[in-house]
Amino acid sequence: MAWTAPRTWVTSEVPPASTMNTHLRDNLNVLRWAGAYKSADEVVNASTVVQDDNHLFTPVGANETWLFETRIIFTTVGVAGFRWTMTGPTGSAGSFWAMFFLSPSTALGVGATETALGTDASAAIGGATQSSLCLRGFITNGLTPGNLRLRWAQDVSDAGATTVKIHSWLVAHRIV
User: Fold this and answer.
1) Which domains does the chain have, with CATH numbers?
2) Which of 14, 64, 99, 138 is spaced 20 to 30 Å from 120 by Cα?
């Protein structure tokens, strides 16, 4: 479905359903976006196996392409670090890059290369400092609808809590 230039309506005109569908429904579908917001903290202890985030995911339909962006606020203790990836439905492909901050004003690092969807990336961040991770990327889906989803864990197993904090978010915009 492609964008159709909106028409100029005439006073007292009663357009047929097909005209309304083209100029309203179809154009709104082209502009579709989705978002997810973390409404509670989520904790992982002593695990390096990435797990689905409870809040940060959004549906992706068959044969759709989306751009996405996240802000993940997290804390980690000891030597745990933080491991993350973005995944999509079976048959999807895409990639993302990361930029992360040790504190709101101190840049810690920027992902220098793109990471394929489903491939783990990590940062050796330790201590109880709150950190922020921003991911940007795209997903091109195949025939199977499903979810674009954040998955995460500790980078090094540690009994201390690694927490993805409330107010983290995911926004996606469908481009095809």
Assistant:
1) 34-174 (2.60.120)
2) 64
